[in-house]
Amino acid sequence: MKGPEHPMAKQPNILFLMTDQQRFDTIGALGNPIIQTPALDRMVRDGTSFTSAYCPSPVCVASRCSFLLGQWAHRTGSTSNAGMPQDRTSVMELLNEAGYQTHGIGKMHFTPQGRKMWGFETRDYSEEGAGPDDFTAFLAENGYDHVVAPHGERSEYYYIPQPSQLPERLHHTQWVGDRTLQFLSERDTERPFLCWSSFIKPHPPFESPVPWNRLYRTVEMPLPFLPPDYEHLHTYWNRHQNRYKYRDQGRDMNLLRTMRAAYYATISFIDYQVGRVLDYLESVGELDNTLIVYTSDHGELLGDYDCYGKRAFLDPAARIPLLVRYPERFEAGTQCDTPTSLVDVLPTSLAAAGLPSQEDRDGVDLAGIANGGTQRDAIVGQLGQEGTGLYMLLTDEYKYIYSAADRQEWLFRRLPG
Q: How far apart are CA 147 and CA 74, in angstroms?
């Protein structure tokens, strides 16, 4: 799919920076006193932070599907890591039709057709599976084709912190950063671009290359959040993940602190790549002409509530970072605590590009949310369907969760922050 050689008017570039499994409370400037995130702190200073952002579904494929289509999970029909609908139009296709040069880098998790372009003109293809891709070809060129599971997906060590098998210059996080800079330096400057750069980390296992793996001291890490009667919040999905992913390794507090230190290290390494990208855009005079969205597909429980992984609508698993920088439409240094969702990124991108909204989409323009001009009653979330379905409805004041498998519901009053 090729857009026209020249866009109709001057339009901003658009850059999506997405991580995998990054919880909301992992940015220094937004209240975490331990983690080192200077580039994300810079985005907080220069843009708008949406501090009550939630994923449409706390699992990779379904959440990313809602992100690229701008529709709730129950409308896409993708509510798990199974297939995505193939008959919808993505944000990449809409922007490409409007003249944008579209490029994808890293983990997209398109299912069932992993190599489908979805409106990308080009891709640096790299998924977390065992099959060959552009990243494994890069490793082979550098003499590292012998490495098992080079993307970092080693199920036998899922929640065991570990140093990477790869040196820093060859790690997947560095590769995504390098490929992003390569695209930005070689792009068609006669057209605006949409680049979606997607990191595999901090998805477990929590592994970083030397010296990043030694960035944090275990003894400085906080213990998991275990409120009174937390066991009563466990659902079928929590019990399943504790057995299948965490493998019921017990509550070893030293291990839990070590896990958090390793988790933070993966995020700081990503932050370093974000800083490189921001610096480059500034050096070529494109930083203020680029809508930059930094977010994640879902969070990570990390031992909170004595649970691990995702597949929950408790805040550590469902609440995500959402930082937006574009001075034309987003005020610097502001925080917005109105509930938002990944479905809002598509209409935000179209609005920034001066394109008409799509009536069949569920999201709203984040600029309208930030300035108070747009109101919504609630956001929703769904994982699975029918007998194993897990559902969320969130308003300014309340969060409601229903687990069909447990035939149990919870109503929480939301607290400030």
A: 39
pLDDT of residue 1 exceeding 50, the answer is no
Domain boundaries, the chain: 13-377
Residues 6+ apart with CB under 8 A from 82: 61, 111
Among the four given CATH numbers 3.30.43.10, 3.30.70.20, 3.30.390.10, 3.40.720.10, the one describing domain 13-377 = 3.40.720.10
Query: What residues contact residue 376 under an 8 Å CB cut-off, 6+ apart?
Result: 339, 364, 369
Question: Which residue would you say has higher pLDDT here, 357 or 101?
Answer: 101
Q: How does the average pLDDT of the chain come out, rounded?
A: 93
Q: What is the pLDDT of residue 117?
A: 86
75-100 pLDDT tens trace: 999 888 888 888 899 999 999 999 99
In this structure, how many other beta carbons lie within 10 angstroms of the beta carbon of residue 247? Answer: 14
Longest CA–CA span in the chain (Å) reads 61
Q: Please state, in angstroms and as integers, the Cα–Cα distance from residue 269 to each residue in 7, 201, 272, 306, 316, following that order.
A: 36, 9, 5, 27, 21
At 53, the amino acid letter reads A
More confident site: 120 or 248: 120
pLDDT of 109: 80
Q: Which amino acid is at 95?
A: L
* Kind of pairing between the strands at 390-394 and 379-383: antiparallel
What token pair was written down for 353? 């590009």
Residue 126: pLDDT over 70: yes
Contacts of 359 (CB under 8 A, 6+ apart): none
Tell me how far apart the alpha carbons of residues 242 and 226 are, in angstroms, rounded to a whole number: 15
Strand, coil or helix: 104: strand
The verdict on pTM exceeding 0.70 is yes
d(CA 59, CA 63): 6
Among 272, 322, 319, 336, which Cα is nearest to 292's?
322
